[in-house]
Design a protein that fits this description.
The complex is a heterodimer of chains A (205) and B (542). Chain A has 205 residues and is an alpha/beta fold. Helix content of chain A is 28%, strand content 29%. Chain A has one domain: Rossmann fold, CATH 3.40.50. In chain A, helix 3 runs parallel beside helix 4. Chain B has 542 residues and is of the alpha+beta class. In chain B, helix 1 runs antiparallel to helix 11 and helix 7 crosses helix 12. Chain B is elongated, with a radius of gyration of 35 Å. Classes of the chains: A alpha/beta (205), B alpha+beta (542).
């Protein structure tokens, strides 16, 4: 039941091992507890491959300002621009693949700016390898089989994610099973994650 | 006078009376009406030929100056002369003649096709460029520009110096020009074409100066000019001496272009003639005149923005749109416009909006005048800032949206707004973020967190009679459905959809990896709306 305690506002990266998995989006949105608008930037490939955020499907009402950027460098530019504005509650960027511009310097700039202005910044990376980065927390988030539906045994229930914090500047790394019930994000101990691993292996067989 | 019609007899009788002295001349109906306006008319007598010459010079194949050249256009009577140069004119070639006739007169005539449309566009750009002298300019026929220079001349050292400067600049571009300043458009037009060189007509000399002009200076058609000449009215002074009543009776039904009386009224200022500029001059505008042409306006923008914002603040306005215009040395203008989502007079913010947009400006060979104008402004009260210089009214968010919009365009920065529709893709509308804050949306637990831009068809591997397919292929990956939730039936909107649109049965399915997907079947078997229902994937759950 240990929960990582990162600084409130910093740059975090969330990797999605399966590119089409929306678990990373749900995981990031579960972290945002803000009434302020959220700046949400997607590059072209993220938009074409995994769609746009759907307003009615969000866990709770969030005011979104969405930027259609074409190139990864535009995503970084817009994130920096958004991190300068105190009116935003968070800045979310989605980058597809491993663009050359998203290097250590670029992530360090984002991290420092995010901490200086106390606005959390999140990078969602799909089809990417976890290379060199200055992100303070680096997660790997994937969907697990959902919980039981309370009234319908055939239906998927509340979502469960496998959250792997593989690098953290301040907290302790580890693997958890994360759940979000709309108000509270809970991290269960990793032992159960191993059980889920077994369950997945079985499903894949 | 044998060719005059019966309608002209009345007028001829009045003229005869005038000659015999039965009626005292000195009618005062043509006395000018005083007005404070100053109109500058610019005549470009050889605009088409000059442009052709400039192009030929650039190509390096311009003919020698003493070679007769002419431009021709096609007409119903065959090719006609459209423009001539000095040498051709001296050889007897005149505009409007047939090319075959002129070839006979001047066998050495060098001919080319006139590009009338391109000339018109060039004149339009030159008209915009001439706003460097006065903000209110308009095209005046196919060979002229008219400017309202009321209150502008002192900036250029007076009216004489202004005319000299304008003609000098145009000569530098390779254009022949003639210009005049008068209190009315008509008088300036006539003086520029038929008056002395660079005529300046003060209001009190209007009558004397126009009296000497030929009646052609009234901007009337050739037929009317011919008619007046046959009546013995050669100059405008002659026309003024005629009593008004017979003239009015003769030309009662004539349209403006054939009506010398109305044209004369316009010339003396009794008939209003507003200057019809394509767009109104902006109320707030600042200039930077540079001693030398430059290629990059970046350095001047902060100061221009500060001046503009000082003007806006003094008047209690904020800019919603600002335009940076550069006036190039080669007689062209180039401009770039940025917009703001709420009125602003923050100089640093407005200047920053131009970041990255200036490379859209085509500097040509450089420009020597930069203007920053606010063509669209809104009332804006004074604001108090907090101690840390942060605004209290949400302008910080608006300014960030402005900067993002300046870079990504209005269609690149969007806000989803909920709509009361059932079809998922129609239940939200992506509006430009500059359009304001939409109402908050009610969330729904059975809606996915991501919606694909277009539903993607999936290939069913293993169908079951009820419920979703047990296995399907999406993007070349096999998904085995474990648990599912549904169906949720969404019927087509009969008031919006085409007849024959099929209903959708949505299922939330979970595959073997735990991916939660939103798929739907389009139609049901036996709904008489097409063949076997197809399956689509529409969204992704967290």
């Amino acid at each position: 039941m240990s929960r990582p305690t990162p600084k409130d506002a910093t740059l975090s990266e969330v990797f999605s091992p399966r590119a089409i998995d929306a678990a990373a989006v749900g995981f990031v949105l579960a972290h945002l507890d803000t009434a302020k608008p959220v700046l949400w930037i997607q590059d072209r490939l993220s938009r074409k491959e995994t769609g746009r955020p759907h307003l009615r499907g969000l866990p709770r009402p969030i005011e979104i300002i969405h930027v259609d950027a074409n190139r990864p460098v535009d995503v970084l530019w817009a994130m920096e621009e958004g991190l300068r504005c105190a009116a935003f509650g968070a800045v979310l960027g989605e980058v597809w693949g491993d663009p050359a511009v998203l290097d250590f310097t670029a992530t360090k700039r984002l991290a420092l700016r995010s901490e200086a202005h106390r606005i959390p910044a999140w990078l969602i990376r799909r089809a990417a390898t976890a290379g060199l980065s200055a992100a303070r927390n680096r997660w790997r988030v994937a969907s697990l089989q959902s919980l039981k539906h309370p009234w319908d045994s055939r239906a998927p229930g509340a979502p469960v994610w496998e959250a792997d914090l593989f690098r953290s500047r301040w907290g302790k790394t580890g693997r958890w099973v994360a759940q979000y019930d709309g108000t509270r994000l809970t991290f269960d101990h990793g032992v159960e994650a191993d059980a889920y691993d077994d369950q997945r292996r079985e499903a894949e067989r | 006078m044998s060719r005059l019609s019966s309608r002209d007899m009345d007028l001829a009788a009045a003229l005869k009376q005038l000659e015999t002295g039965l009626q005292t001349p000195a009618p005062d109906w043509a006395k000018p009406k005083p007005s404070g306006r100053r109109i500058l008319s610019l005549h470009l007598p050889r605009f088409a030929m000059d442009r052709w010459q400039i192009m030929a010079d650039r190509r390096g194949d311009s003919p020698p100056a003493d070679m007769p050249c002419a431009l021709a256009v096609d007409s119903a009577r065959g090719a006609m002369i459209h423009a001539t140069n000095h040498a051709a004119e001296a050889a007897g070639v005149y505009i409007g003649a047939r090319v075959v006739d002129m070839r006979a007169i001047c066998p050495a005539l060098y001919l080319d096709h006139a590009d009338v449309d391109s000339d018109a566009r060039a004149l339009e750009r030159l008209m915009l460029w001439s706003r460097r002298w006065a903000p209110w300019t308009a095209r005046d026929g196919a060979d002229g520009i008219v400017m309202d220079i009321t209150g502008c001349a002192h900036l250029f050292g007076g009216e004489d110096a202004m005319l000299l400067q304008i003609e000098d600049r145009l000569a530098g571009l390779g254009l022949n020009s003639a210009s005049a300043i008068a209190p009315t458009h008509g008088a300036a037009w006539g003086l520029a074409r038929f008056g002395t060189v660079r005529a300046v007509c003060p209001p009190d000399q209007l009558e004397t100066q126009i009296s000497a002009l030929p009646v052609r200076a009234l901007r009337i058609t050739d037929d009317t000019t011919l008619l007046l000449n046959r009546l013995g009215l050669k100059t405008i002074g002659d026309l003024i001496a005629v009593p008004r009543v017979p003239l009015a009776r003769r030309f009662a039904r004539a349209p403006l272009a054939e009506n010398p009386l109305m044209r004369l009224d316009q010339m003396v200022g009794k008939l209003a003639e507003p200057l019809d500029a394509p767009d109104d001059p902006p109320r707030f505008i600042t200039h930077a005149r540079l001693p030398e042409p430059v290629q990059d306006p970046t350095e001047w923008i902060p100061q221009l923005a500060q001046d503009l914002c000082a003007d806006l603040e003094a008047a209690g306005f904020g800019a919603r749109r600002i335009t940076l215009t550069v006036y190039r040395t080669d007689g062209d203008v180039s401009s770039v416009t940025v917009a703001t989502s709420q009125p602003s007079r923050d100089a640093a913010h407005l200047a920053k909006l131009f970041d990255g947009k200036l490379d859209r400006i085509d500097p040509g060979y450089g420009f020597d005048l930069i203007t920053l104008a606010a063509p669209f402004v809104e009332q804006m009260g004074k604001l108090q800032h907090r101690l840390d210089r942060r605004a209290t009214d949400g302008s910080e968010l608006a300014q960030t949206i402005d900067r993002l919009t300046a870079r990504f365009g209005p269609r690149g920065v969007l806000r989803p707004a909920p709509l009361e529709r059932h079809i998922p893709e129609r239940s939200e509308q992506w509006r430009p973020a500059m359009a304001g804050t939409p109402d908050p949306a009610a969330t729904h637990p059975r809606r996915p967190i991501r919606l694909l831009e277009h539903p993607e068809e999936i290939r069913v591997l293993y169908a079951v009679p009820e419920g979703p397919p047990a296995q399907f292929v999406w993007r070349r990956q096999v998904h085995r459905v474990g648990r599912f939730d549904g169906p949720e039936r969404i019927a087509p909107e009969w008031w919006a959809d085409k007849p024959g649109t099929r209903l959708r049965d949505y299922y939330k399915v979970e595959d073997q990896h735990g991916l939660r997907l939103w798929i739907y079947r389009e139609g049901v078997l036996g709904d008489l709306r097409g063949a076997e229902p197809r399956w689509f994937l529409h969204g992704l759950f967290a």
